[in-house]
Structures are given as structure tokens and as C-alpha cells.
Amino acid sequence: MERKPDRMTAMKQLLEQVKTSLPLDQPGIFSCGPSNNCVGCPKKLLDLVDAEVSYWDAAVAQGVIPSFGDISRFGKLCHNVSRGLKRNNIQTLGPVDLSRLFLQRIVGHYSHLQLRGRDFEV
Fold this sequence. Notes:
Elements: H1 7-21, H2 42-61, H3 68-87, H4 100-107, E1 112-115, E2 118-121
Antiparallel strand pairs: 1-2
């Protein structure tokens, strides 16, 4: 049976997935024009994700262990930004996976946890 990753490893995996999936380092993609036909601002969305990625890269490098809520919120943010980019016809390299199965894979060795005041059974 495969061993489940700990929280630090899970956050590192999520960071790598985000870096490869979202076009964070391609600033020329986004230019607002006079037509303003954007649904949300893709540049601002990616700036938000880039700030979170930078924060968690630094935190993980310093040995800060993220909580399950931190992993969940970061993954949900990235998933929603990915959806926003798709609404603006901007291709991502792959989906940012924050499904229930992904959370179960991360925290599967725990029998019960609580996220945002709701019980979460694994």
C-alpha cells in the first residue's frame, strides 16, 4: 500500500503542480485593451496566485508546516483562478486538481479532520 504524503510534501506537490499548470511567468499574455471584453481580470488573478506561490515557497523553505486548511484554501484559490482563465479563453497547461480525491490522497492516513468548521471524513 502506498504511503500518504505528509502536509509539507503535499504542499510542495501542489506548488509544483500550480507552477507547471498556470502561466505565471508569461506577462505578455495579458494586455487589457479598449474593448474590455474580459470576465474578471486575468492579470490580477495571476498576480494573486503568484503572491501566494511566493509566500508558500518561502514558508516551506523556512520549515513552516501548512495546515490542512492552508492546503485546501490554496488549492481552491488556484482551481478558481484556473476556471477564471478558461472563461477568458486563456489556456492553462493542465487542470489544478483540488478535488475531494486529491484531499483524500493527502490526508488519507487521518481518519477525521475539520476544515472551516465543517467535518470532513476521509
